[in-house]
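Fold this complex.
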Amino acid sequence: MKNSKRVSSLLALSFITALILAAGPPAGDVGPTYAIRNCRIIPVVGPEVEKGTVVIRDGLIESLGPADKVKVPDDAEVVEAEGLVAYPGFISALSNLFLEQPARPEGQAAPTEVPIQAQPAAAEDRFPPGPGLFVLDQLKPKKAAVEGFHKAGFTTVLVAPIRGVFQGQSVLLNLNGEAFQPMVLRNGAALHINFTTERGSYPSSLMGTIAHIRQSFIDAEYYAARQTRYAKGPAGLKRPEYDPRLEALVPFVRDRKPVVFQCNNLEDIKRALKIIAEFKLNALLAGANEAWRGADVLKKTPIPLLVSLDFRPPAASMYVTQGEELRKKAEAEIYPANAAALAKEGIAFAFVSAANADGASVLRGVRTAIKAGLPKDEALRALTIRPARYLGLEQALGSLEPGKIANIILVKGQIFDDNAQVTKAFVDGVLFRYAEVSK
Amino acid sequence: MKKPLLSCLLGFVLLAAAALPASADGGDILIKNGTILTVTKGVIVKGDVLVMGGLIKQIGENISAPAGVRVVDATGRFVLPGIIDSHTHIALAGTNEGSEAITPEADVGTVINADDTSILTALSGGVTMVHTMHGSANPIGGPNVVLKTKWGRPSEELVVKEALPTLKFALGENVKQSGRTVQPGQIQRYPATRMGANAIIRREFLKAKNYMEQWDRYNKAAAAKNPPKNLVPPRQDLRMEVLAEVLRGNMVARCHSYQATETLEFMELAKELGFKIACFEHIWEGYKIADELAAAGIGISVFADSWAYKMEAAEGIAYNAGYCAKRGVLVSINSDSGERIRRLFNDAAKTMKYGGLSEEEALNLITINPAIQLGVDRIVGSLEVGKQGDIAIFNEHPMSAYTRCDMTIIEGDVYFDREAALKDREEAAKKAAAPRDKGGVS
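Structure:
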């Protein structure tokens, strides 16, 4: 409840800023009211419209439907969209957009564990800020990245930090310009945990990391219990010492704020599930590019899956350790079928761009997954309504419905066809036009 | 390059992995007309073993197969219990939490990697069970785990829950980091000496005792009729919890040690603090204290040979295992390796030449003895009715220099079949030679 209040106030804030943007220097073409006409509408929720109109006002979808049923307001700027298809803007519920990170060389398998010869570090710098870090403070928005994501259909991204075991807290952004403050839908969206090691200090092994994660949650619960008790009646009680690291963890163990576990392989999924059950966390599993191998386990849990489009088998996988031929085969044929296999098993998931900052290649990844057997409508849901639901934003995003945020992409062709092109994107009702490239 | 035969085999067996008949419930199989080396109940020269639902149902002569049960002809071959490796590090994502000296919270059971192809290597040498351990970088490492080598099965199905919980300890050169060059700006990790290793283990156990007392006091107060109003529980500490389990006797020590003196000191420490040592690992100087080990009922898990690879191994002798066994110590031969694991039978056989063990005694070192060390001799380690159907079939006597493993069976399911693997290899070679088509994965 607390969260949704916070979201709505943040949403309001972003609308106001959108209005300010509209009045100020344009971020793309800007206008407060639009009527998109004569487009095919694929709303994801509700029936498709062969030839229809979408009215956008003040950053929201005001109405939509068949051309003869929706009146074009007098004050609307008409966007002629004959031959275009309107979809809800895609949502990537996990990305590292706008973060500077070392690129991994093409074709190199994803690391599952970084072996480090660690030395004990001084107590105070043993644990970096971790759970208390807000990634928002590190963002460097880039126009090219926004454009690249728009052209791949994405209008909303959750940006997560990238370092350490307790990586910190993510921010949810609507890609509505170049300045990041107006983009913020929700800061501190989730806590992100990665099964990696801390450089140069404890834990230096995966098993140490698992113990460290568990001990941290145990300590956070203990801390919260003592703080609560002390607040109720301090007389006769020793004052519990303030600890910023544990304080940052409390909302995740106490108030079910979401925790995202980065799962680099099948075993990480099982490790995460154990920790989630132990501490009753409100969690999501990310990465999961070999989740199909754990279908039996995943079928039994309602925990959302954020499936990356990275088809490289994890380094320790048996598809890697038996020679280059099998690894190549796995990357070309086996891992791309992950999503298709999950869909077949009835396991719901959302697609995420994850570490890939190149929008075009993310969309190519979706197409590859479709070629490997994923039904197109499953792919579409995995990029729209499902991530919206997982992020608790299904009232505001994820489909084309009146009252929802006007995040809309207009596509020449079907978005999952190889030659499809996003020619316009509305984000918070702000219009971005992209020149058509002849292919 | 180290394992030319296997690296050829691996790829093809893998493709068969998906089609493994193995199930969580255990399989049925009848092995006919082999020489049955039961280990605990003598030898049956021409005998059969029937496994039903994963368990050995019948051992004897002229057993007929129930309808639908696969029959394996073992004529001229040797049927023995699956080999058990008492000390290895296979099937793990990481071996050491080396950042600190004391890390009993770092449990290898949490980082099982069922994709490790060493499992397959182990199967090709008749190994059906492994004690896969935390490394020896710390005086107190982490809990170990016992696994069955069920290649292709999900990690959780590999774990042998009946096994004795064990905690890894280590002494000597590894923990004092004598082989490590301390870089400028780095700190030499404590302990840097053998006496330091002993002292830090003692210190941590005293802390654990204190921790247990704190909880006892709290639990007692909380259970009282009128608990004190301001009663606050102690902090739960995963590190101390594990040591408390050792002190309560619910977990036993497996201690990496080489030299006689530090080993005796560790035994003293265990006596003082009241914890149980199941086994010393490697212990090249075991022969110097064989009587003390036998008297204390502590086993050893050692290599057959190849000592002197570091200073503290300089006084190793090939007679170590055989001599200790003769003196009444419970001895097992281990691999400590994902490669040597496939020829434990060769290593065990060396004790016949060096130490004068009989064929039977030598075979004990890789079957029933490690089973006793791991607390699983009720369920594996020999061929007896009621035990689990973990079986290896060899073409010659396993202690012969000319032997090789032909088939490895776990709980009645065939996990390694040399003939089938070779056939797969031939077919794959043919396919590779033929013009390539763009076939998908089936």
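Residues 83-200+236-377 of chain B form a domain with the TIM Barrel fold (CATH 3.20.20.140).
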